[in-house]
Amino acid sequence: MTDQVETLLAEAARLPYGEARTVLAERALREAEALREPEPAIAARLALTQAYQYGGEPAKSFATFSRTVAAYDAEPGRFTEWQARRVLWQFKWIMSDMRRFPEIPLRRTLDALDDMERRYREAGAPQAVYAQRCRVALHLGDEPAVEEWLHRWETTPRDDLSDCRACDLGGRAYALASLGRYEEAVAVGGPVVAGEFSCGVQPQSVLCTLLTPYLKTGHLDEAAEAHRRAYRIVQGQIGYLDDIGDHLEFCALTGNETRGLEILERELPLLERPPSPAQARSFMTGAALVLRRLMETGHDGLTVRRAGRDVPMPELHEELAAGAREIAARFDVRNGDDVHTRRLAATLAAEPLVAHLPFVSPARRGEPDGRIDTDSRTAVRALFELGEHEAGLAALREAGDPAAAMEAAKELADLDLDVGAAQAYAAAADLYRDAGELLAAGCAMRLRAKCVYFASDDLAEISEAYAQARAALTAASDMGQPDAGQRREAAWELAGLGYDEAVALEWAKCYEAAAERCQEALDTYLALDDQIAAVRARELLEGLREETEQEG
After folding, report:
1. CATH number listed for the domain at residues 403-551
2. What is the pLDDT averaged over residues 406-415?
């Protein structure tokens, strides 16, 4: 790969997903294609497909992914082992998106799924295929098939192409909820909600999935907390337009129409450029339900601000409901049934499941449980953004809420305020440690180390941050964990820390030390049978050894 393409891809990888990252990845692909050499273009297309997926432009990823698959089928030897696996991994994204666009023929979608299954079976990794077949059956409203594929999904051992543990549990919870098996959905999603497993899209996605199951099973406090936690994470993010629609529906079903209207007015601009028709339909459905409930409760004289004008509520309700019906009808034409129209009609006519569910718990209204309310969280974030880190940290520590500190840290990191993020992660670690949650403290310290790496040019400071994180995770491991799953999680965190530190040491041209850390990470990944992470670590290790030889 040429230096220019490699530099552009590295710059893109440091940015959050969105327009800036996508533009850099597109530029990298143009540079790579101008070279007329396969290898740089392979890396650029893989990166651009991911940027489109997570940046809210999934339709654009069809072309880049198709070209990647064609290149692989023509010359598989041009792909590294990690890149070949990445092609298979991205198949899952494309399959999910093919269901979201009614203009893609159903036959083409099913053929693509058959192709995915062939490739996954050749790789000895069928579990993710069963998950995809379950999701297709859900889309088609074929409940017996959903039950069958869900059973295969649940009973087939995980492999290195399975979704991460958090997404795997979240997907199964969604299938169970769709079947009306609400208690089971709550149980399956529980470990993700509790923070035992997480990833870039969890726990927000599973919290959204469990909104209705919580209501149906009488877990009302959990339902309110799920809405609060998940919506804070997804608000304003176009890639979560469908989840925002589910939050609007939840507001309408719990007597919180005013809260729903607040969300609708805030998020309505996202509807101008929806990632897919399916996501647009979800948002319009939830919004139409909120507006219907507001009109029924005597607020039909209100207006909603949209595109520079105040739109009367009945007019906007009719426009959004009609838009949702039109998209549902397109799916039904494609699929040859009326499943989506019937589902939509049921949702638009739904009545509240709870007369009124307070979204502020009794503790937040006055009982000292140490939690921070939404306004206080906003104030804390503002303090950090203004550079008043000590005041922000003092507020977090005074509240004693490690989850709030973690959320503040993540928001700051997303804003590239890495110094403040590192301090907030450290505060979270202290709070977790005080509560006896050593593994959570170690995880927070690992994230702190990465922020220090991004914020500092001082190798000694960076190395000390990683040493502190290693000490925290080692302390958690030495104490032992309640079950095998948590012991494995501690091992994964230590391996990830070693890999991250190897990258930091590589940046500082400390190749021998970086290779040592990377070897430790690789050994752990192999012991955990995490083949994808192992391939990635092995490639880094080989590069580090080459650099060491060149330096020598």
Report:
1. 1.25.40.10
2. 75
